[in-house]
Write a structure and sequence with these properties.
There is one protein chain. By secondary structure, this protein is α/β, with parallel strands linked by helices. It contains 13 helices and 20 strands. The strands form 5 sheets. A 10-stranded mixed sheet has the order 9-7-5-2-10-1-11-15-19-20, with helices on both faces. Strands 14, 16, 17 and 18 form a 4-stranded mixed sheet that branches. Strands 3-4 form a two-stranded antiparallel ribbon. A hairpin with a 2-residue loop joins strand 16 (about 340-350) and strand 17 (about 350-355). Helix 2 (about 75-90) packs parallel to helix 7. It is globular. The two termini are about 15 Å apart. Bound molecules: inosinic acid (IMP). Inosinic acid binds near residues 38, 127 and 236.
């Protein structure tokens, strides 16, 4: 079977980029299927370092075709900048494919993202302010502008006029902000269209043809299960389906083309932006995790909130994604702790929950129920096989497997490619 989906199981920043990068060379295609430049990771290959937000990191491999699927939203300014950055490292972008049906982030989406957050005040979502939510809103409202519209000046002007009739009213009357003219945006965006044109393709058709002749496809999820608009901690979520089902919709392939779903879980837990986080730590342990784990966002530079591993979340992710495997990342960061707690259930309103509580308010004041495990008290960053790990670290991994009901196939013990233990991934 040809398809593997890789998804985040927590609130993002699990280290999906490193795992994708590790696996990419075994696939013929690597496809982004949702999100936009709200994602981001740094890829290091020898002396080359790239900060990528939109283009799959598979761009670095000669024999892998990177694709941006219809489910993504694209800020052309960011894409063009990213292509420039890749070229400046001497890497060709010729094989990149961008779906003509992906939606385009417009300047007013950025304005509306910021304005809407400011208006929400203390209830704000804590978005990345990249215009992601407003762009998806327009897609669903059917006044969005797709990549193919951008390539046809006549259509682009027409669609822009329709969109601006509404957007300008909102900008001016609701938020008291400056408005846009069609001309102003055309001047900015039409040159981008020419830069992007060579890459635009029918991604769904190309993928289906490739799958028919036995090619292997890795669907690379951005954000994570708890940020999924349907299955996450709504409303503190992103505006797309980051769970495995999103791969089928966002790339245009049938679900029966996917046979493996790899969930990436950090060995502890982080979150950026607002919203509930039962195992959040505001003590010295939280500070240690933040410092040792370098927990600062690649996209926004924001400090991440840190806490203990929450097995309830990962068990939930196992269900909603149909996980077949787990990749456990940053296990080395826990070496700093003498004892390690794992949340196995929550208590709220006198009830114990082994699953995510059915109501948002119960989840908001859920208290974690912990099991405490011994730490291993030594550096594990040089371990390369599972047997190299100290017994306590092995037991920690086995405990998490048992709680998730999913085998851990990959363990990472540092940021380098080599700092990886292939436990059961074939
Ligand atoms: P948006 O995706 O910019 O609309 O932000 C919505 C929520 O998703 C906010 O809480 C963001 O912090 C969060 N978010 C979006 N992208 C990422 C990511 O790549 N990592 C972690 N959190 C993210």
């Amino acid at each position: 079977m040809p398809g593997t989906v890789l998804v985040g199981t927590q609130w993002g920043d699990e280290g999906k980029g490193k795992v994708t990068d590790l696996l990419a060379e075994n696939y013929d295609y690597v496809v982004r299927f949702q999100g936009g430049n709200n994602a981001g990771h740094t890829v290091i290959h020898g002396n080359t370092e790239l900060a990528l937000h939109l283009v799959p990191s598979a761009i670095m491999y000669d024999d892998v075709i990177p694709m941006i699927g219809n489910g993504c939203v694209i800020d052309p300014r960011v894409l063009v900048e990213e292509l420039g950055q890749i070229h400046s490292q001497g890497i060709s972008t010729d094989k990149l494919r961008i779906s003509s049906n992906a939606h385009v982030i417009m300047p007013y989406h950025l304005d509306l993202d910021g304005a809407s957050e400011a208006r929400l005040g203390k209830n704000q979502i804590g978005t990345t302010k990249r215009g992601i939510g407003p762009c998806y809103q327009d897609k669903v409202a059917r006044i969005g502008i797709r990549v193919q519209d951008l390539l046809d000046e006549h259509i682009f002007r027409e669609k822009l006029q329709t969109a601006l009739a509404e957007k300008n009213d909102i900008l001016r009357k609701v938020y008291g902000m400056p408005t846009y003219s069609v001309e102003q945006i055309c001047e900015l965006y039409l040159p981008y269209a020419e830069r992007i044109r060579p890459y635009v393709a029918d991604v769904s058709r190309e993928l289906n043809e490739a799958i028919r002749i036995g090619k292997q496809v890795l669907f690379e999820g951005a954000q994570a299960t708890q940020l999924d608009v349907d299955h996450g901690t709504y409303p503190f979520v992103t505006s797309s389906n980051c769970t495995a089902g999103g791969a089928s919709v966002g790339a245009g392939v049938g679900p029966n083309r996917i046979d493996r779903v790899l969930g990436v879980a950090k060995a502890y837990l982080t979150r950026v932006g607002s919203g509930p986080f039962p195992t959040e730590l505001s003590d010295a342990v939280g500070e240690t995790l933040a410092r040792t784990g370098g927990e600062v966002g690649v996209t926004t530079g924001r400090a991440r909130r840190c806490g203990y591993y929450d097995a309830v979340l990962v068990r939930y992710a196992a269900d909603v994604n149909g996980l077949t495997d787990l990749a456990l990342t940053k296990l080395d960061v826990l070496s700093a702790l003498e004892r390690i707690k794992v949340c196995t259930a929550y208590r709220a309103d006198g009830t114990t929950y082994k699953t995510i509580p059915p109501s948002q308010s119960a989840f908001h004041h859920a208290e974690p129920v912990y099991e405490t495990l011994p730490g291993w008290g030594c550096d594990i960053s040089e371990c390369r096989t599972f047997a190299d790990l100290p017994r306590e670290a092995q037991e920690y991994v086995h405990f998490l497997e048992e709680l998730a009901g999913v085998p851990v196939s990959i363990v990472t013990v540092g940021p380098e490619r080599s700092q990886t233990i292939m436990k059961g991934w074939r």
